[in-house]
Write a structure and sequence with these properties.
11 strands; transferase; HemK-like; alpha/beta; methyltransferase; seven-stranded mixed β-sheet; S-adenosyl-L-methionine; two-stranded antiparallel sheet; binds S-adenosylmethionine
Amino acid sequence: MFVKEFKNIFKKDLLPFYDEQEIDSFFFLTLENLHQMKRLDLALQPNFYIEKNEIQQWEQVVEELKVYKPIQYILGATEFCGLPFLVNENVLIPRPETEELVELIVKDCELLPYTLAPNSKLKILDIGTGSGCIPIALKKFLPNAEVFAIDISDKALEVAKKNAIANQVTINFIQADILKVYDLQNFSTPNFPLSTSFDIIVSNPPYVRMLEKTEISPNVLEYEPHLALFVEDNDALLFYRKIANLAKNSLKPNGKLYFEINQYLGKETLALVESYGFKNCELHKDIYGNDRMIKCNI
Ligand SMILES: C[S@@+](CC[C@H](N)C(=O)[O-])C[C@H]1O[C@@H](n2cnc3c(N)ncnc32)[C@H](O)[C@@H]1O
């Protein structure tokens, strides 16, 4: 079937579920993933033909979209900071707000070579790495950095390791429950000694309170890992307290701590890092105007 003809069927099938703009974006994402064709390629090849056996794959996509499965999980792929990432239901789908966090760190690091001792490598730790989007993008943009990443979930780490290979970067991945780590500098797992201090610690930890559950869209609730989203006992700042405390003792003298935060708790999270003695604490908004990032110095 010619792609133009097929696009009309795709649209008609999904119109009861999504608006036209969303359907358009699903169509082009699927085209890119199943046929490696971008929007512009399609304009150049309007008579591109979708074979019978390929139509089955498209039909599968449509069926899953009808039950509101996120397109990234259906295709098993997404983009973060312009890089390709594999995703499945064991990892959070990387968000555009997190790209802004990476951008903020990379911009700051452009100034860092001047503050680093000669021949010393920038050391970065990401806590709660999920798909590995933060450490992989940072390593890609700061190739001289030595990057470490922790997650509690073995299944998430499997995905993160595949992403590091796909993006041709080396990251030191560590499986650990950060809430049970008491000293990052002398912390080690059976196969990985982490006896180092860091220039940068970054984290986008779980921060959604159960009481905010009703505000989360149903497809996020149904398909994204709750381990990545929710904190226990409605204690939204649980991970921030723990990580600020650990970072205090394991950042180098010029070290920086970066957090992605719960948009409703900007002031509270800022007060928290200040209470741990961090300096130059700044609250940053995301492109939607919500309080989203914190940056501070040891
Ligand atoms: C909000 S997600 C962030 C994922 C990724 N960094 C991103 O920005 O897309 C939080 C991550 O923290 C991990 N996590 C949850 N509890 C943890 C714990 N106690 N120790 C370490 N990691 C944890 C989850 O498995 C999840 O991957």
